[in-house]
Amino acid sequence: MQLDLLICSLPPSYLNEPSLAPALLKSAVEKHGFSCRTVDFSLQCFKSLFNNDYQRWLAWSNTLPDHIDYNSVNDEHKLLLEQAVDQFVDMVNQINPQYLALSVFSMWQQRFAYHVCKKIKTNGL
């Protein structure tokens, strides 16, 4: 059975204060008879790419507002962004929802969403 909706929290987010919005939206979606799943991709990214190293995570997170202008970003942070975006697209492809919803609440998450959407537009899901 195909999943109707996948709601994803994007990186970076405060790891000690997860957003409640995806869970509330999931509840509303399921109340109306649709299937839904939530993924905290910020936490998943922290664990898989940064091996729970909070200082590296914080340093990378703080550079995301600069990721539109790649001339101002160091190579390590560019690589980490590319890996995170690739992991995100792979995860979405594996789950294969009918619809994808991105939870974006900060300028930092907006930048990550920009790169995800750019990748999807260029390569598809």
Task: Give structural notes.
The chain has 5 helices and 3 strands, in the order βαβαααβα. With about 120 residues, it is of the alpha/beta class. The protein has a 3-stranded parallel sheet. About 25% of the residues are buried.
Notable characteristics:
3-stranded parallel sheet; globular; 5 helices; single chain; 12% strand; 125 residues; alpha/beta
Give the beta-strand count: 3
Q: What would you call the shape? A: globular
Mind telling me the C-alpha Rg?
A: 15 Å
Distance between the termini: 19 Å
Order of helices and strands: EHEHHHEH
Major β-sheet, in short? 3 strands, parallel
Strand content: 5-15%
Q: How many DSSP helices?
A: 5
Please identify the structural class as seen in this structure.
alpha/beta
Lateral arrangement of strands in the main beta sheet: 2-1-3
List the uncertain runs. Answer: none
Helix content: 55-70%
Mean pLDDT: 87
Question: Topology of this protein?
Answer:
Layout: E1 5-9, H1 21-31, E2 36-40, H2 41-50, H3 54-63, H4 75-95, E3 99-103, H5 107-123
Helix pairs in contact: 4-5
